[in-house]
Design brief:
heterodimer, A: 346 residues, mainly alpha, two-stranded antiparallel sheet, 75% helix, B: 440 residues, two-stranded antiparallel ribbon, 14 helices
Chain lengths: 346, 440
């Protein structure tokens, strides 16, 4: 059961989950920067910039890790995805480039401490692009409509992703990331009014996520029948579906009751289960209907070496990540109310 | 424009763009860490201010490097899916290692940029050193993968398929060591000279400004030492190319015929029709001596190889000459600076020297770009030397000219903005005329 292929596919899923929970939330924060409204619009944008500034580059690397594990362990799957999904992936990359650059421009421009930079708007707007297209990509893979033998351009390069199911999954990814971001942002501040702002946003986003998740599930009936069957026709499928629903409702209830730490657990759990539900329903396919994690796997020597690299990397990575979050998120993540003493300014 | 040419152009453009930011991302953290270390050692606040100002610029450049690097990791598949399907199992582990190095770099850069008041000064300096080291490691892993494309090892080729794959043997491919050494030195030389040029320019207007004096000292030391070592690593690299890619070396040197006692040619225009170098200055026996320390050694010429396996000779040869010319000018400037520092104890009083530093400041990156052309175009028509042709690797996706135009415009736009933002930072650089009065 736990073959090398399964373990490495598992590391891809874990990396993708971390990317969604952390990198995804950074995109979600960009959405709220775009939608900043009301008397505290400026304070909202400032909080967002402070919250993601020190960590977004590290969070972004999860995506690189997903790609490198994929093309090392399952090269034909990577080749097929990047060929058939050339168009959405290219658009996604443009979002990656604009979002990251614009955020750095806005944060590190001369005088950025004193006034808001116009690059903040570019950062906010381009934060929409990547989540949608990441979702579209996943939706297209899940649909099982990628076929490299098709003879027309549209059938090969457009139809697999330009369909209702992938597009709704794209919107779901955007809503989910914005939801995560809003829930996290509540805990990034102690300012009651700002907390209320993001609480309202989180509640609204939770409802949008719920509606889109149900819509995606319904569309999967024709758009991604394999996923639909996997979730519908098995015991674990029902467990995943019902747990996701319980966590979704739990997030709304805890937000309503202002139990923000519990809300964060529910939200992260909900996002994780949506991803895992897709992954387990698709198992063992990487790119249905032909490529599985077994027939697309690299030779065992590569898989063993890669696993070794990942283990060594993890030993290096997790303590470093812990340190990063300990330094910058001691209150928000670890609940430590006395921040480390501010050192004397130079 | 054919799809193959569009794909090659997009890859070349993306790499040419990324290599600048990646180089800076490797070298700047070293210079920042040196400045911060000097601050901790001497207590002079001008060094702290310098580390902070450099960090501000680096933050922008690093972010652009990170996102353009992300684009490249996808472009490997978007443009060359068959290459990745074949090479993934062999060189993929290198990219995974690179992924973790990049992770470490990004994590500790976050601490470095935002942690000035949150971690102890020592922890902060150590974070800077970790950024410098992990950046170095990233660069090494990526260049080893590139070296594998030049001299692939760690497999057997059976009917076009790679079998008996050994990714560890692939990491030890013959070009790995010399190519990484050359590229890493290039990052320090190019970045050091570029930064030195900016501070030399500002020093010419404000000669007593300690801020620029300190900056110039560190940048010139890093850039100058690397520039002095670079001809040595270049020589080692050329010999390795001559051993393992003799065709490529013949293109570098404009060596059409196999020749005993081959001359070293400077300049000249390759004439493919007659198979000669026109108007080249020839140093008799030069090439044979350089490669084999023997004036009568035989150097293989292009004629030994099938015509359809030649790289575009004129491009490779021209880029090679530009690289070497830039390298030697930088060596001369570095020696001049070393001489001034040794004889007079200072380099800041010499206007001609400061002007020379300004003049030499873009040459490191010009040499880097040329060197990249030398190694990449010099490998053509292969994407994996002797195994897979570039034309076989290109994606079946039609209309590749569209993403080419999109990414070119995007990167041009970013380049303009980055230059503009850095100019603003330079214009706001501090004036410090004595140790006691540090103002920003």
């Amino acid at each position: 059961m736990l073959s090398l292929e399964v373990i490495l596919a598992g590391t891809i899923l874990m990396s993708l989950t971390f990317y969604a929970l952390m990198g995804g939330a950074d995109y979600g924060a960009g959405v709220w920067a775009l939608l900043a409204r009301g008397p505290r619009a400026k304070a909202q944008r400032k909080l967002i910039a402070q919250a993601i500034g020190p960590i977004w580059e590290a969070n972004h690397v999860w995506l690189i890790l997903v790609i490198t594990i994929l093309f090392t362990a399952f090269p034909p799957a990577f080749a097929t995805m990047t060929t058939a999904l050339h168009i959405p992936l290219t658009l996604m990359l443009i979002g990656v480039v604009l979002r990251g650059s614009a955020f750095a421009f806005a944060s590190h421009d001369i005088g950025a401490e004193r006034r808001e930079s116009p690059w903040g708007q570019v950062f906010a707007a381009s934060s929409l692009l990547t989540p949608v297209l990441l979702g579209v990509t996943i939706g297209a893979i899940a649909s099982g409509n990628i076929q490299m033998t098709a003879h027309s351009f549209l059938a090969t390069f457009v139809h697999p992703w330009a369909a209702p199911f992938p597009l709704v999954v794209g919107l779901l990814a955007l809503a989910l990331f914005a939801f995560l971001a809003a829930v996290y942002l509540i805990l990034e501040t102690t300012e009651p009014a700002l907390r209320e702002d993001f609480r309202r946003r989180a509640l609204a986003a939770a409802i949008v996520v719920g509606v889109l998740a149900v819509l995606a599930f319904w569309l999967a009936g024709t758009g991604a029948p394999r996923i639909r069957r996997g979730l519908n026709d098995s015991l674990w499928g029902w467990l995943v579906l019902s747990s996701t629903a319980v966590l979704g409702v739990g997030a709304i209830v805890t937000l309503w009751l202002r139990r923000y730490r519990r809300a964060r657990i529910c939200a992260a759990g909900q996002a994780t289960l949506i991803l895992w539900g897709w992954a387990f329903a698709q198992y063992p396919y990487l790119v249905p209907p032909h490529l599985t994690i077994f027939n697309a796997a690299a030779p065992p020597i590569t898989l063993r070496l890669l696993l070794l690299v990942l283990l060594l990397g993890a030993v290096l990575l997790f303590p470093s990540l812990y340190y990063l979050f300990r330094v910058f998120k001691s209150r928000a993540v670890f609940g430590i109310t006395t921040p480390p003493p501010k050192r004397e300014a130079e | 424009m054919s799809d193959l040419l569009a794909a090659r152009s997009q890859m070349a453009m993306s790499l040419a763009f990324h290599i600048i930011f990646a180089s800076i991302g490797i070298a700047m953290p070293l210079m920042m860490a040196i400045a911060e270390w000097r601050w901790l050692r001497t207590g002079q606040d001008v060094y702290l201010l310098l580390a902070k100002r450099w960090a501000k610029g680096t933050a922008i450049l690093f972010a652009v490097g990170a996102v353009s690097g992300t684009v490249l990791s996808f472009e490997l598949g978007l443009l060359w899916p068959s290459f990745m399907a074949k090479a993934g199992p062999v060189i993929g582990p290198l990219f995974s290692l690179e992924g973790f190095a990049f992770f470490t770099e990004a994590i500790f850069l976050g601490i470095y940029l935002y942690g000035w008041h949150r971690v102890s000064p020592l922890a902060h300096l150590v974070s800077g050193i970790i950024v410098a080291l992990s950046g170095l490691a990233s660069g090494i892993f990526v260049v080893i993968a590139n070296a594998w494309m030049n001299t692939p090892t760690g497999f057997r080729l059976v009917e076009g398929q790679l079998v008996d794959i050994d990714p560890v043997a692939a990491m030890g491919n013959p070009m790995a060591l010399t190519q990484t050494l050359h590229m890493i030195l290039a990052t320090y030389a190019a970045t050091g000279f570029a930064v030195a040029g900016i501070h030399a320019f500002l020093l010419l207007r404000d000669r007593r400004n300690l801020f620029h004096q300190r900056a110039l000292s560190i940048a010139l030391t890093v850039g100058g030492l690397a520039a002095l070592l670079q001809p040595v690593s270049g020589d080692l690299l050329a010999r390795a190319v001559s051993d393992h890619q003799p065709l490529k070396l013949a293109a570098f040197e404009g060596q059409f015929r196999t020749e005993q006692g081959a001359p070293f040619r400077i300049g000249g225009i390759p004439d493919l029709e007659t198979g000669t170098m026109r108007y080249a200055i020839e140093i008799p026996y030069g090439l044979s001596v350089l490669l084999y320390l023997d004036p009568h050694a035989t150097v293989k010429g292009l004629e030994e190889f099938p015509r359809d396996e030649w790289p575009p000779v004129a491009i490779v040869r021209t880029a090679f000459q530009i690289m070497i010319a830039c390298g030697f000018i930088m060596v001369a400037v570095a020696l001049w600076g070393g001489w001034l520092a040794w004889r007079r104890g200072t380099v800041f009083d010499s206007r001609p020297f400061l002007r020379a530093v300004i003049g030499a400041s873009p040459l490191g990156f010009l040499a880097t770009e040329s060197g990249w052309v030398v190694t990449e175009v010099g490998r053509q028509p292969w994407i994996i030397s002797g195994v897979m042709r570039t034309a076989e690797a290109v994606t079946p996706m039609p209309g590749l000219v569209i993403p080419l135009i999109m990414f070119t415009m995007l990167f041009l736009f970013l380049a303009v903005v980055v230059v503009w933002l850095l100019l603003r930072q330079v214009a706001a650089s501090p004036r410090i005329t004595s140790e006691e009065h540090v103002v920003s």
